[in-house]
Amino acid sequence: MGSFSNSIQGIEGAIALGLGHGFVSSGLFICVGGVLYDRSHTRLITYYRGIAQIMPLFSVLFFILCLGNAVLLLASGVTITYSHHSLIQGNRNGALLGAIFTVFLAMIFTAFQGVEYAVSSFSFTDYNFTTAYAEQVEYNT
């Protein structure tokens, strides 16, 4: 959308969003295909439960990349487009309102994700799946 606005800010925003998407998507593909699948040789998600105990730094990186992917989707939405067009028209109050609303929606989305993880039936400390994952990794190496 920004690249079609025929303005410097729109083109810079489109380039920044494209670069961000490229880094986040590449990071997620490397995490899933380059690390998880190469270690376990399975696509069954149940074997990945409890992985935070085995690879805590990887789990944090994967979580940050997933949040980055969600934020990129929210940032490219309607509110940031409204803010961008308000800025082009010189309406600073509209631009500020659009940016505030975008951050507000991002916080709500992140809160819903936190609630979803808090009330889910699995946890990162499930020992039975941690040992099953470790056994399968040792078996395949």
UniProtKB/TrEMBL annotation:
GO MF annotation list: cytochrome-c oxidase activity; NADH dehydrogenase (ubiquinone) activity; NADH dehydrogenase activity; ubiquinone binding
Top-level taxonomic group: Eukaryota
InterPro entries: Cyt_c_oxidase-like_su3, Cyt_c_oxidase_su3-like_sf, Cyt_c_oxidase_su3_a-hlx, NADH_UbQ_OxRdtase
Localization terms from the record: Membrane
Keywords: Membrane, Mitochondrion, Transmembrane, Transmembrane helix, Ubiquinone
Transmembrane segments: 14-37, 57-82, 94-112
GO BP term, pick one: ATP synthesis coupled electron transport
Subunit structure: Component of the cytochrome c oxidase (complex IV, CIV), a multisubunit enzyme composed of a catalytic core of 3 subunits and several supernumerary subunits. The complex exists as a monomer or a dimer and forms supercomplexes (SCs) in the inner mitochondrial membrane with ubiquinol-cytochrome c oxidoreductase (cytochrome b-c1 complex, complex III, CIII).
Protein name as catalogued: Cytochrome c oxidase subunit 3
Upper classification of the organism: Eukaryota, Viridiplantae, Streptophyta, Embryophyta, Tracheophyta
